[in-house]
Amino acid sequence: MRGTITPRRTLAAALAMAAAAAVALTGCGKDTQRVAADPPKKRDAFETRADRIVRDWPKVSPVKGRHEAVLPLVSAEHAKDGGAREITVTVGHSACDARFGARKYESKGLVVVSGWGKKKSAKGMCTEQLATDKVKLTLDRALGGRKVVDAATGKELPAG
Fold it and tell me: What is the pLDDT of residues 67-108, one digit of tens each?
């Protein structure tokens, strides 16, 4: 008869549920599980530009226009011996920028650096005069024989 509950069907259903639970729980509680704390972040203009420079070096064209995430540097200072883990860059920014700074992107053969600026709100008056400030960047490892490249211009920044 269809729909009749028999001891045999009850046992079969219980075994099937136990097997499904065992499969579902397989791997739970092991040390090898990893849960991502943050979702992957979207790459910004600087990271995209730095990837392109590393890929196409030394045939790199300058960036056109002003981009808040990729401002050209006025200069860079780093040791000539290559043992340095610090680079001091001079960032050219606008007096209209509320905040500014510098960033780095390291690869095996290059260290790509750039200035960045964040404009103040459009309210109020602001002059577009160029201001410069020095910013220190700490490298993940010694500079070694890597070249330091300005992300905005695509040109190597000499030591000094």
Answer: 778 888 888 888 777 788 999 999 887 777 778 899 999 999
Better pLDDT: 16 or 117: 117
Joined together, the tokens standing for residue 92 give 């050219």
- What is the rounded CA–CA span in Å between residue 105 and residue 54? 9
Q: Output the CA torsion 120→63→102→100 (10° steps).
A: -10
Q: How far apart are CA 39 and CA 124, in angstroms?
A: 37
Residue 88 three-state SS: strand
Maximum pairwise Cα distance, the chain: 92
> Pairing between strand 97-106 and 130-138?
unpaired
Residue that has been written with the tokens 């002003």 in this structure: 66
Q: pTM for this structure?
A: 0.69
Q: Report the C-alpha gap between 149 and 104 in whole angstroms.
A: 10
